[in-house]
Write a structure and sequence with these properties.
The protein is α+β, with helices and mostly antiparallel strands. The chain has one domain: Translation Initiation Factor IF3 (2-Layer Sandwich), CATH 3.30.110.70. Strands 1, 2, 3, 4, 5 and 6 form a 6-stranded mixed beta sheet that branches. The protein is elongated. This is Excinuclease ATPase subunit.
Length: about 150
């Protein structure tokens, strides 16, 4: 190898280490209501399946089907953090909705953010982590059949 090529390889390696060593991971607390009322969410979420966050009141539980976690990521490139977070939040809700259908329930209760297994329970906000390339949301909740 020539000295110039060796120098270029070393410089490229140093740049890669510098950029990956300081990857952005911004924590955002965003509105559940706004995420669930986007046109995409209204189109893709089944109105017969209900979602209850944190300790929000709900009808009597008839059957408990289990506690489930969903952890989704989405491409955040060329999107605002909020736009990427709303998109990945919809993906997590669809995942929970699919689980409700699989288990034979009609709701998810006690939903909480569960990013990196850290619990953040709120009836109004969800936690999203956004970086330069990816955004992620993790949710945990109890799939049930309500009266």
């Amino acid at each position: 190898m020539t000295r110039g090529l060796i120098s270029a390889v070393i410089l490229l390696g140093a740049l890669l280490l510098a950029t990956t060593g300081h990857a952005r991971d911004t924590t955002l607390m965003l509105s559940i209501e706004e995420a669930m009322n986007t046109p995409e969410a209204r189109e893709r979420l089944d109105p017969n399946i209900r979602f209850f966050f944190a300790d929000a009141p709900h009808d009597e539980v008839i059957t408990e089907h289990g506690n489930f976690v969903t952890n989704k990521k989405t491409n955040a490139f060329n999107k605002s953090d909020e736009e990427a977070c709303k998109w990945v939040m919809l993906s997590t809700l669809i995942s929970l909705q699919d689980r409700v259908k699989t288990e034979g329930g009609n709701a998810v209760i006690n939903i909480e953010s569960y990013y990196k297994q850290n619990v953040m329970a709120s009836s109004t906000e969800y936690e999203c982590h956004a970086g330069a390339l990816m955004a992620g949301v993790a949710l945990r909740g109890d799939v049930v059949t309500l009266r």
